[in-house]
What does this fold into?
Amino acid sequence: MVPTVETSQQGSITIVTLNRPDVRNAVDAATAQALYAAFVAFEHDADARVAVFHGANGHFCAGWDLAAGAKLAGATQGDTSAGLDAVFASLDFDGDKFPLPGPPGPMGPSRLMLSKPVIAAVSGAAVAGGMELALWCDLRVMEADAYFGVYCRRFGVPLIDGGTVRLPRLIGMGHAMDLILTGRKVEATEALQMGLCNRVVPTGQALHAALTLAQQLAEFPQATMLADRMSAYAQWDLALPQALHQEWQRGKQCLGDALQGAARFAAGAGRHGKF
It folds into this structure.
């Protein structure tokens, strides 16, 4: 039996592949657990610098497996709330019960706060919970015919994997309310315009482009890049003076690297924006 989540290595890059082709990579409980485990393993792998997350067989992820949800409703003979309580008992958001990088979410890794970047390679559908998984990633590389959408709006399924938090922070409240309330389809061109994705590439090229981008990130001096990344995440609920202070606290740990970088520049490396 082919596993629904596969992990492979390409140098210092971890590739996490969601593979449930019969349901466009929709996530059931077992798959969510496997995704969570894959990204926790990436976090603790000292040799892995960047992860690329993609879906096999032409789709990123169609969200939560509604067919599995329907079976749950049938198994509880109409007492759906009791069934959900049983299924999600281990997913209650009590971060104190879990060491870093954080507790599991219904879709798997959506509550993790990793110390290293993850890039989503988005093809086909990235909708409902699948869109939330893409939002969880640091960067999104999107194929020209791929699309986002809060498609769960039609079925009364709430956003419980960070969608109502990350979407407004990423694209602003006006755009977020449009997508959250209407559930409409967002194609690649519009996604790029509103900042929902970072790159648009030809169909079939998202994984290759994401791996190329991941390799670029992996070749930078890691301490400073990771400190800047975490400072950007940590500043959201801080007043400006406190945000500037935490930026300094993280950045000052990397000043030795900065001086070495300055010496390389003085010796002629990296001139005129060359990487």
